[in-house]
Design brief:
CATH architecture: 3-Layer(aba) Sandwich
Low-confidence stretches: none
CATH class: Alpha Beta
Strand content: 5-15%
Structural class: alpha/beta
CATH superfamily: NAD(P)-binding Rossmann-like Domain
Number of helices: 10
Shape: globular
CATH topology: Rossmann fold
Number of strands: 10
Number of domains: 1
Bound molecules: NADP nicotinamide-adenine-dinucleotide phosphate
Largest sheet: 8 strands, mixed
Length: about 325
Amino acid sequence: MAGSVLITGANGTLALPAVDHLLKHYPEYTAILTVRDASDDPNTRKLREIILRYPEAKASIQQLDLSNISTVHDFSSTLSADIAAKRTPPLKTIVCNACYWNLVGDPELTDDGYDKTFQVNHISHVALVLRLLDRFTPDGGRIVMFSSEAHEPGRAVLEKIPPSIPDDLDELVKPVAHEDKRGAGFHRYGSSKLATTAWTHALNRYLEKDESLNKITAVAYNPGGLVDSRMFQKNVSSSLYMLMRYAVQPLLPLLKYQNPQMRLGADSGVDAIELALDRVHPGERGYFELLEKAESSPESRDESKQEKLWIKSAEWARISKDNTALRGAFE
Ligand SMILES: NC(=O)c1ccc[n+]([C@@H]2O[C@H](COP(=O)([O-])OP(=O)(O)OC[C@H]3O[C@@H](n4cnc5c(N)ncnc54)[C@H](OP(=O)(O)O)[C@@H]3O)[C@@H](O)[C@H]2O)c1
C-alpha cells in the first residue's frame, strides 16, 4: 500500500528538492505539501513549478502556519477526517521539516504566548504528529523530526550560549531578551532542536509500547550543514549572509574535505525522502546524522528530562488522551 507523504515547510531549501525527488521516483505516493504562505509567495511558486513537471503527480499545496496552534489542530482535524473518509490515502510519513530562527531580533511571542522559534520548530510539530498517529497505513510508517548539530553543545560554529533543557521548562517558551541577539537567537534555535531530539526518543518509547502503533518509527534527523539554505538569507546579519553567500558556498568543494557534513539542501532533500519512506534503515528508530545512525547529545538521551519534556510539550501543544491515539502515554 502506498499512502500519503505530509511535509511541513514544503517550499524550503531542503524541501523543494525533496519534493522533486518524491514526485519523480515515488509517484505512487500522495504528496500533502504544507507551506506557511500558500498565496503568491515566490518559494511557493517554485513548489508549484516542481509539481507541474510531473503531470501524473498526486500532490496538493496546503496552507499551514505553524506559529498558531489552533491552525495546526484545525489542519489535523480536516486531514484526519479526509483520511477516515478515504478522500485522502493514509499517511506513510510525516516530515517535520519547517523551521524558524531569528538571529537579529529579540524573542518573539506568538499569539499563543510562546517563543516563535520554539513553537514553529517543536510545539506545532508535536501537535501535528500526536494528532495524526491513528491515520497511518496499517503497515505503519515513519515520522521524521528535524534535529541539527545545533542541538549538541560545542558543535555549531554559531553557538555562543550552549543549548539546554532548563529545570524550569517554561524558560523554553518564554526566553528573556539578551544583548547578544545572534548568540541568543541561535541558543533558542539550538534548544528547540535539542527539545525535539529528546522528545523523539520519548515518542519512540511510547510507540514501541503501543500494540496498535508500534509499526510507526520516529527518527530525529540531522541533515548536515546546508550552506545554500534560505535560513542564511532571512533574520540574519548582512555579514553572516555575505559570509555564507560569497565565501562558504563557493568554497564548499574544499570545505567538504574538512567537514563532510557540509552540503547542499538538494543532497539532504533526497536523503530525507529515502529515510522517510523507509528505503534506508527500515524499521530503525532514533537519531541519524545524514544517513548514519548516530548518538544524540547526552542531555537529549536523559530519560528523566525526556519525560518532563514529553508532559510539558503535550500541554503546550494542547494534546491529551482525548485527542491522540497514543492514549497510554497520557494516562
Ligand atoms: N540549513 C541548515 O544548515 C540546517 C542544519 C541542520 C538542520 N536543519 C534543519 O533542516 C530543516 C530544513 O532546513 P532548510 O535549510 O531547508 O530551511 P529553510 O530553507 O529556511 O526552510 C524552512 C521552511 O520552514 C518554513 N517556515 C518558517 N516558518 C514557518 C511557519 N510559521 N509555518 C510553516 N512553515 C514555516 C519556511 O517557509 P517561509 O520561508 O515561507 O517562512 C521554509 O519553507 C529545518 O528543520 C532545519 O532546522 C537545517
